[in-house]
Design a protein that fits this description.
alpha+beta, 4-stranded antiparallel sheet
Length: 737
Amino acid sequence: MTEPSNYWLFRPATPTPSSPLQSSTSVGGPSNTSPYSTFGFTSHSTRNQGLEAKRDLVKVKVNNPLSALSASPDQTRVVVGGHQVLKTYRVSEKGVREEANLKYKQYIHKQSISDVKWGNQYSKSKIAAASNNGYIQLWDVGGGKGKLDRTIDEQGRAINKICFNPMQGILMLCAFQDGLIQMWDLRDRVRPKITFNGRANSARDVQFHPSNSNEFIAAFDNGMIQKWDIRKPNNYERRLFAHASSALTVDWHPDGNKVASGGVDKIIKIWDINSDDNKPTEFIPCISAVARVQWRPNQVDEIASCSFNKDNRIFVWNIKRPYIASYFFDEHEDIPTGILWHDSHVLWSCSRDKTFIQQDIRTNSHRQIDLLNKCGIGWNVYDELAFAIDKPAADLNQIRRSPSASDSGIVEPEIRSQQKTGVSFMTMFDYESFKYLAENYMISTDDILNTCQHNAKIAWEAQKFRTSQTWKIVQLLFSNDTLDEEEKIITNSDNKQVSKCITENFYKHVDLPKEKVLDGMQENEDSLSESEESDEFVTDENREKENVPATQQPPPPNLIKMTSKLVQQTLKSAVRPIWNHESSMNSLLEYYAEQGDVQMCVTLVLVLDERLNVDKDTVERWIFSYIELLHRFQLWIPASAIISSCKIPSVREKNQESTTIYTTCNNCFKPIINSHNGFWICDKCQKLLNPCSICHRIVKGLYSWCQGCGHGGHLAHMQEWFQKKSECPTGCGHYCA
């Protein structure tokens, strides 16, 4: 007896003008005379009416979560597998009917299906089901009812993926969690025919070439995808470092020239497998990790994908328009685990929500572009403003034009754009000067005078004359620190020398400002009054002294003291500004902040350091904004210098992020992490890493290598070699430089 299943058959009615995400559904009771349960359904059509009949939305409910599905060669049946679930269904225009429940009691504990595949040609009546605990079951479903053919025990080695050779159905590939890939000949019941060592932690996916029976491609947990030839099992033909983290899925394009891959890094990448270029031809950014990809038949540029976590939707992308999905399906209530195209319009999928769903892209999908605002604006760091509006602007001088005529004489309607785009070049930001200043400014606090002098010169060369003047003013403001030190050198002996000089020739050599003299006289009014009172009577001797020329008559002692004080004050006031440093600098920083010149604000703060009293939160915002600008212009060295010079902990932590690069063993290709024997020895295979390609000694210091061929050596040796030659020193033929 087979277990009963629940079926839902949704028949699309006439499209309504409602939103693509809004549909009315009326539910009726299941019929007693038919294995199908029919429900009314209203769906918004997302494509023009085609010549092919549209398929109904069909949902099949099972008792446990599903993890994989596969179609029969004639596309009339489908097998789904999951936790203690392995069933086949016959799919027709009327709906879906369960055909066989492939489950034996003695294998219930082993049936946690990780992948399932339906054979082809020789094996068209075979179904292979792989489990997480290392068992592969082969079922014969030729008569409609399943019969267990054999069980392959891999001693607990988890199996991630299996596939049949499209040209030779007797060959089956199995990708294991330990990184090995085995190929079985179904005629041999004892052992695998060939074992391929991917030299990685885990083989996540494997796919045969659609038209070449000797080639297959595999995805690995270290982010690599490898192309193999079964006639050369010792090593792969090509290796691509496809993803920054685990590569989870690969799929051949029907033409056999391109491969799509997806991984945990949330990117779908398209590779020209016949090219020597190690860069993808196209890439599609996704919102979550990519678990499955499947090329759409008869649509050379469209591919479907589903998420590894977080997102229940299935997306259909056009690789020529990678940033917005062309369509998406949202019928599943949990993460989809398997997708395949029944034909160019109908998609089959299964999910952890215990359902198998058949959906037609013409009636059951949503166009994501219809849900987005068609008006957009973007501003880049080079002051270029790009925009798009929903409708083109009306042309007041438009001349009526007759419809164009084709060569056949048939009048064709004029094609008009539905959207208007444009680019405006602004002149509000001088990015050339910004880059020049960032690369040449000094931020040293050791010698403020020289730093300000240098920065003023750099700003002048960049034709930033106001900025140059600002640096000159800052230099003048903070030159007091140097003058204060020099003032301490003046001692009592210096004062005596000054007094002596004034005594000898006071009026001849010193030209004091009138205001200073009057102020000094006012300050010494009491002492002068006392002197006048003592000389109350005028004698002839005093008269004679009054007739002596001023250059020969020594000044009174109190005048000498007053004059010495005035000279010092005058010398100080000649170079020292009378305004307040702190208030002036705060006003200066506020001015440049209002102008949006965060570069000047940050440089001033770093140069003057503790001499300023600025709010730390404000300084932190300035520095982070400046670092972001430097990163946008790819000025990594100035940005690192800014971070290193800053004393704010939250800023300095930026230089402590992502500072570790793990190397990989060239023998077993396992990452070398926390090695106990040194980073030139692999702990897993106990072999030495590649020696220097020139001196053939172990590299224990800086190691430099070519990302193209993988050969390298001591940094100094490689620099010396490539100063004269461009070819790899090992003789591999690769031009590294």
